[in-house]
Amino acid sequence: MTQYVGAISGTSVDGLDLALVQVTDDAVTISAGAVKAFPESLAGNLRGLAAAGANEVFRVGIADATLGEFVGQAVLGFLAELGIAPEAVRAIGSHGQTIRHHPEAEPPFTVQIGDAHRIAEITGIDTVADFRRRDMAAGGEGAPLTPLFHDALFRHAVRHRVVLNLGGIANVTILPAASRSILGFDTGPANALMDAWTQHAFGERYDAAGERAAGGTSIPALLEALLTDPYLNRAPPKSTGKETYNLAYVQRMCRKAGIAADGAATDVLATLAEFTAASVAGALARWGPASGDLVTAGGGRLNRHLMSRIAHRAETFDVTISDDHGIHGDHLEAAAFAWLAHRTLEGLPGNAPEVTGASAPRVLGAIHPGRGP
Fold first, then answer.
1. What average pLDDT does the segment 195-222 reach?
2. Is the pLDDT of residue 227 over 70?
3. In 288-327, where does DSSP find H-type helix?
4. pLDDT in tens, 24-43
């Protein structure tokens, strides 16, 4: 048995997700996890980098170094809480924070920050980072990278399964029964639009449990405008991010629909929740199985209103959360990057070309050695 730590800050920038993963020859087990809140100064800097701004290169440099130091200290604290010596961990798989993801650019590029040199120096543990760019160099989208891990954890012999991660962006892994085929892609926004609007309209970071949205009524004209988004009809492979799905996007769609948004804030929020549910259900109808298990993870699984709308629109699926399958939904993505670090060190590919569009399987990530003896 070999132990790895995974670390990721997702598109919602709500904290650092950590997971301890045990890997044997025939199994992978998530044995522990935690979420470490960012200092508000760091969180604010990371959110601010989601869009272009003044003195951006300097701000990126500071955030990269600060996040790397935070990850290193957080990993040491996490291991201490578990009573595990750093020497007992083979490697850290650190995703970092995505601040730009542009697979549509020419040439395409993606940027994750969180200085892995500092993580390795602080912890003394070999650190694998920068997972996405090799896939992109091979012609892929650089995302999603979790489907192979979902396959290892969730595939069922007789039932079709879809793993739905509801972070800032929603992505699915489609695992047909009685087959080794796999498909995965970003369906569109999950929490990104709802969080941006909640912050703008109500001064709160997110709509806890979807209570505000549940008190509103979806606006037909706005939902219709949102559902004309060309991304929804693009065939996989495809990926997206907060570069597209942000507050400016909401405001633009409100103008397109002729909605005085600030005068109908709760109804706009309800419509954004409905848009997320409709875009997920539409993707399943177009590229998924007709029925099966829909296993949800990520912070959005705790939004009861959103989950009820997804269950309503994807009515042929049995909707559960990953916790029902013994896997904590806040730990799944971090665990995936721990597992990807294992794949890197073993010289095994971490991407699925049928998912990302890469020309071939590739070993992902760059290795940053720990301090050694």
1. 96
2. yes
3. 304-313
4. 887 899 999 999 999 999 99
- Which residues, 6+ apart, have CB-to-CB distance to 329 below 8 Å? 296, 297, 298, 299, 301, 302, 321, 322, 323
Query: What is the residue-averaged pLDDT of the chain?
Result: 95
Specify whether the CB–CB gap between 17 and 114 falls below 8 A.
Answer: no
Q: What mean pLDDT do residues 14-30 have?
A: 92
CA distances to 5, 44, 123 from 76, in Å = 10, 24, 6
pTM of the model: 0.94
What 8-state DSSP symbol labels residue 341? Answer: H
pLDDT score for 304? 98
Look up tokens 């549910």; give the residue. 277
The partner residues of 89 in beta bridges, in order of sequence, read 3
All residues at 6 or more sequence positions from 264 whose CB lies less than 8 Å from its CB, including other chains: 219
Burial class (CB in 10 A: 0-12, 13-18, 19+), 342: buried
Identify the residue whose tokens are 């590919």. Answer: 349
Question: Counting beta carbons within 10 angstroms of the beta carbon of residue 144, is it exposed (0 to 12), middle (13 to 18) or buried (19 or more)?
Answer: buried
How many residues would you count in the chain? 373
Residue-wise burial string across 150-178, b where 16 or more C-beta atoms lie within 10 A, e elsewhere: bbebbbeeeebbbbbbbbbbbbbbbbbee
Q: What is the DSSP letter of 365?
A: -
